[in-house]
């Protein structure tokens, strides 16, 4: 026998002396000793036993090797797949195997390219051939194999173009919403026409208002006199109906409705045929007043100046393609409302002349609804002032119940900045107590006319269109603040900011703003507060489908 020692290879050589030949085995298991012996030694079993042991050892090793390869090879395959795919796409590098640095560099390069593009003027946006969608952007980048800077440039322009379209759509939607507020619903036209027809054929619709037995109340100072200047029949009916239904003593109220010649007939017909639901109502047309020629001239001058201010404001907006300074959208568009030129709105400054025999009144706009008894307003001490109005807000010292002076006036002009403070709250109109006796002892109406003439000499640049700005100037220092719960305004805006508990507790809700409750664009959340006082059982209301 001979013995070979090796660290990595064992050789087994078996000789069969019985004529069976010889067998040669190689094993890689690190066998260090092999014994070659005569088969006769050990009763002929030594040589054959050594070879059998070597064979069994080699089989187990091969099986183990196959198992290891079966586990390792799939991982190797996946690894090579990642290498091939990420190299072909030239993207983020070998993320799983140390590609983080490449990702960071590409991210920095993309950021730098976007910043550089932002600094440019964005030329090419809107030009012929510009991209219109993200799909087109992907196709452009794929076909032309743009680099990352080109990708950033095109992406930036596409995003700016999309942003411009979104802003333009929002702007136009806002303008159209305001234009919708200028119209009169078909149902209101229908109501006026049917009442006018009824006036001509029905003697009851032409009955005297108020009845002869109630005429003395029209000037009796012991009654609560409410004045409404309007050309809207339905709105006037809601104001009076809501006031009467919430009054502790409805018989103490006397309503004076002043309207234009066109609306006088249907207005008279409505209250003549619905007199049972109203205590005392006087309907008077402007054509029935016999004013001195001097007053007529002043009224015409007043209207002409207001028209000039309105036309200038309109032309400025038109020249700027209805572009607005941030935060001035609503007041700029609302100033274009035709109601800013309505005669009835501007005649408030002449109320002492309209009612020379009255001393104290409450003036209500036609877009209000009353929810509480108003009787205590006539007992309010105005402390020598002429008008009582809500100045402070329910939301505290940091906000106003309506708008601030800077929303109405041009404080860059010295005439305005020397008379008003821009951050002061403007008092609310729409529900006001007027001491007409104290008014007649002042020069408020003359001051109003003087401010109008100053506006003309200043190039019509002192304030925005409307009757309220010169009224605020004329009544400066003559206003008594009322409790904020008397008057909550702003219900005609796109979004109502007043909490529900404030709306419920308010004495008067004012739908100031474009979205009047009788329009389709009105806010459905608060519209029902107004519609519950519409006389839905009235024949003409049903025929004209007003409740629809």
Structural summary, described in words:
The chain is α/β, with parallel strands linked by helices and 548 residues long. Helix content is 44%, strand content 11%. The protein has a seven-stranded mixed sheet. A three-stranded mixed sheet has the order 7-12-11. This is Hexosyltransferase. Its EC number is 2.4.1.-. It is a single-pass type II membrane protein. It is found in: Golgi apparatus membrane.
Question: Secondary structure elements and their pairing?
Answer:
Elements: E1 10-16, E2 21-27, H1 41-44, H2 46-89, H3 100-118, H4 134-144, H5 148-180, H6 186-201, E3 224-229, H7 233-245, E4 253-259, H8 261-273, E5 280-285, H9 293-319, H10 329-334, H11 343-346, H12 351-354, E6 360-364, E7 368-370, E8 387-390, H13 414-417, E9 431-435, H14 436-440, H15 444-457, H16 468-474, E10 479-482, E11 487-488, H17 500-505, E12 508-510, H18 524-531, H19 539-543
Parallel strand pairs: 3-4, 3-6, 4-5, 8-10, 11-12
Antiparallel strand pairs: 1-2, 6-9, 7-12, 8-9
Note the gap between the termini. Answer: 119 Å
Shape: elongated
State mean pLDDT (0 to 100 scale): 81
Spans of at least 5 consecutive residues with low confidence: 1-57, 90-100, 121-129
Helix/strand class? alpha/beta
| Proportion of strand residues | 5-15%
List the main descriptive attributes of the protein structure presented here:
548 residues, alpha/beta, seven-stranded mixed beta sheet, three-stranded mixed beta sheet, 19 helices, disordered N terminus, transmembrane, Nucleotide-diphossugar_trans
